[in-house]
Amino acid sequence: MNKSRWLTLALVLSLAANLLIVGIFVGRSMSGAPGAIHLPPNLGWMIRHMDQPTRQSLRSEIEQHSSAIRPIRREIREAQRAFDRLLVQSEPDVEALSETLTRLRTASDRYQLETHGMMLKLMPELNEEQRRSVSKTLRRRPDQHPRRHQN
Length: 151
Hints:
7% of the residues are buried. Helices cover 72% and strands 0% of the residues. The radius of gyration is 23 Å and the shape is flat. Helix 4 (59-87) packs antiparallel against helix 5 (94-122). With 151 residues, it is mostly helical.
């Protein structure tokens, strides 16, 4: 085989591998495992302490919570991007920066209220040992590795 055929073959194999990888990701995201619960990132740390039957019994509440916080999270990201854009302008507009920070604070407050409400629904479903694990997680410093539980 000459050099151009090897190059063509390599490109075709690369394209096939990329399509396969993309197909796997799209397939997983579209179908999900049967009975899988898509956990909102803000609750995953707490829900992982629950057993599977408890998670399944709370599935509809978790999905409702996830739907409720999705637009709030989007609003937070948009406000953060707007703030970043305003911040790097040659002449920062203090009034616009203030307005953007107010939007960010309001969205963050709504997000926190929604999350705390969901925590209050989930905590009674945990047994004492699970609540202790959650307590350790809450006390852990943000820079601490999740597997190292220090008191």
